[in-house]
Amino acid sequence: MSFPKNFLWGGAVAAHQLEGGYREGGKGLSIADVVTAGSATARRRVTDGILEGEYYPNHEGIDFYHRYKEDIALFAEMGFKCFRTSIAWARIFPNGDELTPNEAGLAFYDDLFDECLKYGIEPVVTLSHFEMPLHLTTAYGGWKNRKLIEFFVRFATVCFERYKGKVKYWMTFNEINNQANFADDHSMYFNSGFICAPGDNHEQLMYQAAHYELVASALAVKKGHEIDPGLQIGCMIAMTPIYPATCKPEDVLMAERAMQRRFYYMDVHAKGFYPPNILKLWERKGYQMDITEEDLAALKAGCVDYIGFSYYMTFAIAHKDSNPQYDYNERADLVRNPFVQASDWGWQIDPVGLRYALNWMTDRYTQPLFIVENGLGAYDTVLPDGSIQDDYRIAYFQQHIAEMKKAVEEDGVNLIGYTPWGCIDLISASTGEMDKRYGFIYVDKHNDRTGTLERKRKKSFYWYKKVIASNGEDL
Ligand code: BGP
User: Fold this and answer.
1) Which tens digits make up the pLDDT trace of 187-218?
2) Per residue in 68-87, pLDDT tens?
3) DSSP of 270-287, one letter per residue?
4) For the whole model, what pTM was predicted?
5) Domains parsed from the chain with CATH numbers
6) Are 13 and 20 in contact (CB under 8 A)?
7) Pocket of ligand 1 (CB under 6 A)
8) ipTM of model
9) How many angstroms separate the alpha carbon of residue 429 from the centre of ligand 1?
10) Whose CA is nearest to atom 2 of ligand 1?
């Protein structure tokens, strides 16, 4: 007996990376709409509006806004039990600070969820997946501002009420901990909706913004349970285990410290309080945080029902004598792991690390685990006969699912589902490229904006269908 009978096999996407229709149905501008395309080597550029002559790949996405029926039929053909997507906040509240939601936006997701349910596909929904209404960043400074808590909780409440009976599985913030690399403007913007100005203390601002998000998440969880006690509301963490580069004790301690810095968000979501090492860090650095007694009570009362996480890679870290406090600096201290291979984009591929991650979380938390993203970004080629022979992708999934299976079977991990990322090709979040593909379904669209948007089944489509039909036995 390995995967439970009701295991949630499916796939994952996010609104801004595939919907397009960026000004349709009364939608307001979202922060993802003002980020330009990047490339394999250059990061995307955050702008403060839409500049003439720039290309914004999220404006069209893969036109899922108009083609979702066709795409969901393909997911159903693969046998999906669930489908993870997100709600574009700016479809529901175009500016983010209105009191009344936009009916056309609500109706779009009603239809989308109904279409899933028609095939017995359970929607799994992220409330904020790297986006928020642009107005909240320009008028309020994004998550630097406590006011955002109120706006987010209103948005969450409207969604929980509207989709009651249709959506049971929710997540609050996608990869909330990605901002731990506070030196990276791009991650800060997607997570928190602001870019640091010269002279700002990035680290302190990151902790403050993340605190407001954690409080907003906890309040939303509580509200959701009041609306429907049956809701399962999870967090979403980018799970990137950090190994010590060697067994030198200082490297081991450095790795432990790096894990604390990257994953304390999970502690707050799952246990309802800050771990002592973070409180000590703030004290040592003299950070005066805006954290009230009510906030602490809210965190305690709003623990998540499950831990959703993405898993793509592991890191390794070495200690430097110049760092006596063991402060984590992702850019300076991470080292290449010679024991694993990397994707074309340098992401270190480590299937055994997935089993390690599942065990690590099981040892610390009581909530069930849900792998809501995993996958291989790769260049695919359409052969003259029209087929896409993505054996490299199949091999990647075979190895990862085999490790998941051992974690469930041999280690007793309580895993409830698996939704590979970008089950249909979509816009890459980090590069804005179309040709970094993850899908079982190919979409004819390219970095240079050409393409018919036609969908094609890749070889991995038929393979994943077989995996689902055998509940993970036939890999
Ligand atoms: C995660 C994000 C997704 C997604 C994925 C793949 O960090 O939650 O939105 O895009 O990574 O990353 P990329 O698109 O940069 O290859």
Assistant:
1) 889 999 998 888 999 999 999 999 999 999 99
2) 999 999 999 999 999 999 99
3) HHSS--HHHHHHHHHHT-
4) 0.98
5) 8-469 (3.20.20.80)
6) no
7) 14, 17, 130, 174-175, 238, 310, 373, 377, 421, 428-431, 436
8) 0.99
9) 5
10) 429
